[in-house]
Amino acid sequence: MNEEILQKCIKAGKIAAQVRREGTAKLSVPGTSILEVMDYCEKRIIDLGGQIAWAQYALNEAAAHGCPLEDSTEVTKEGDLLKVDIGVHQDGWIADNAMTIEVKSNKYSNLIKASKNALKATIKLVEPGRQLWELGEAQSSEVEALGFTTIKNLSGHTLEQYKVHGGVTIPSFNNKNKTELKEGWQIAIEPFATDGDGFVKEKDPATVFMMYQQKGLRSVQARKIAEEVTPLNGMPFTTRWLTRKFGKGTTALGLRELQRVRAIESYPLLVERRGGMITQFEHSMIVGKKTLVYTRHEDDKW
Length: 302
Ligand code: MN
Ligand code: MN
Prior knowledge:
There is one protein chain. By secondary structure, the chain is α+β, with helices and mostly antiparallel strands. It has two domains: 3-203 and 268-293, Creatinase/methionine aminopeptidase superfamily (Creatine Amidinohydrolase), CATH 3.90.230; 208-266, Arc Repressor Mutant, subunit A (Orthogonal Bundle), CATH 1.10.10. The chain is 33% helix and 24% strand. A hairpin with a 2-residue loop joins strand 3 (81-90) and strand 4 (93-102). The radius of gyration is 19 Å and the shape is globular. The two termini are 25 Å apart. It binds manganese (II) ion (MN) (2 copies). Residues 96, 157, 188, 190, 282 line the site of one manganese (II) ion.
């Protein structure tokens, strides 16, 4: 990885960590509007000199892909188990990080500790030559030591320019994959822990999308949206960005056609299939003899 790219990752990482911390702190107060905080996080990314990849949240039995609609009235409640996942990029070089808190309660401290310990232990193993199964094993053994399970159908991933999910997935259990980490790989590790049975399922309707191929489009609505999201270069977008600009009707019609012709992919909310509670911690890093974790905030203890 050359110095210029490295500096872009580091800058994106600093902003992502800062915004993750600020967003989580705001939402830790019961009665806080999630929509307002997600809007705040996006604006804050820009103000700090970053480019928005995403600002997402997930509550309780949800794992990921929560983005509020423009008219959402959802607020945090005492006892909520809250995940905040922030993505920032610099010219496509992405920092992806997440953390979990509970809102003014102390019911889930072990479940929180489980995914936090898993991330901490796994980072220590990240070096060239390390095999993927070892990273999975480290996550599941930490989580199981506290009596919980990792979510088997969610994983970490490599990051590439303008690609949130590069070609390689980092398992959260020993999947026997002997692929070795290579020097210079940019990866995100994100153990999820649950008191459920360890699998998520999708819950429609999605509010997160990515464009992945240009297609001939019939309707003016679909063309408007395609024109809007094409400059994102395949990075995610969310429904409320579109409804605020084009209105609900145009957005709904346009998204429908774009999905039908498979110009965009939708990413519905992911929820634990038995309704188990979920925690997650995530950092992005560059693999090296001395691995650089570039989304670590000074207040992070992991
Ligand atoms: Mn993430
Ligand atoms: Mn990730």
